[in-house]
Sequence to fold (297 residues):
Amino acid sequence: MDLSAVRSEREKWMTWKNIAPLRCALASLPQLKSTVVLGDTVALSSEEALDLVELERVARLMMPWRKGPFDLFGLFIDTEWKSDQKYNFLRPHFNLLNKKVADIGCNNGYYMFRFLEDSPAKVVGFDPSALFKSQFDLINHFVQSDIVYELLGVEHLPFYEEKFDVIFCLGVLYHRSDPVAMLKALYAGLEKEGELYLDTFIIEGDEPYALCPSEGYSKITNIYFVPTLKALEHWCIRAGFKSFEVLGTVVTTSDEQRKTSWIESQSLEDFLDPDDNSKTVEGYPAPVRGYVRLKKG
Fold:
C-alpha cells in the first residue's frame, strides 16, 4: 500500500467546508513561549498575554471535546471523558523510556501528550479524523512537541514505515466488524518484542462468547462485538499474540464519562437504563472495560 498517496488524499480533508474555518481560526492564533505541565490536566501557561476570549472561541469551534482535560492558559476544557483516570490506571504497567510509541485511535492526543512525561524516543498517533487532528493541532500549536499525528487508521499500521516498541489501542476494538483482523494489524505494527496495551468493552462470563448487539450498544451504533475476557483472549491468540495478561476491569461511571458544556450532546447518563444503571437503554449489561497487555514475543 502506498501510504504517501493516502496521506496526500487525506490532507485534502482539511479543506472540507466544516473543517476549513477551524484551520483558519487556528492559523490566526499567536505563538507564545509556553510552559507545559503534563499532569492529570495537560496545562499550559505563559508570561505573555493571550486573548482568552478568542482562544475559547476557536476551541469551541472544534467541539465536541471527548478526551482530556486541558487547561490552556486558564481556559479549562472540561472534556466528556476524564481521561486521566484511564491513563493513571495503565501507567504503573508500562515503561516508555526511549521507546517508539504509537497510539491507535489517538483522538485529540491527550494520551500522547501524557506519554511525554516518560521520555519516549518517538510518539506517533493514528486517527482518521480531521476534527480531532485540528484539536490536536490547537494544543500542539502551543506545546510545540515532536509528536507525529497521522490521518491513518489501524488498517494502515502493517504498511507503516516503522514498527513500534509499544502500541496503545484504547477504546477502538469494539468499533471494528472484524476484531481479529484488527488485532492482526496491531500485531504487525509491533517490533519483535513489542507490547500492546488494549482496552475494550467486555461482558461477564467464563466461556469464550461475545455479545453481538443488533442495532447498537449504549446508543452507539457502530459496536459490533462485546466479548468475555476468554473470548478476547482467543481473538488475541488467533491474531498471533503469545502473551495475554489481564491488568484489570473497570466499570464506567459518571465520574469518568459525563456531559459537559464542551460536547453539547448525550453522554453516559443518557446511555443507561434510568431505572436500572446496571443495564444500557437497550437492556444489555452496562459498560465495563477490560484492560490487557499483549506481547508479540
Q: What stands out?
A: The mean pLDDT is 97. The domain at 3-295 is CATH 3.40.50.150 (Rossmann fold).
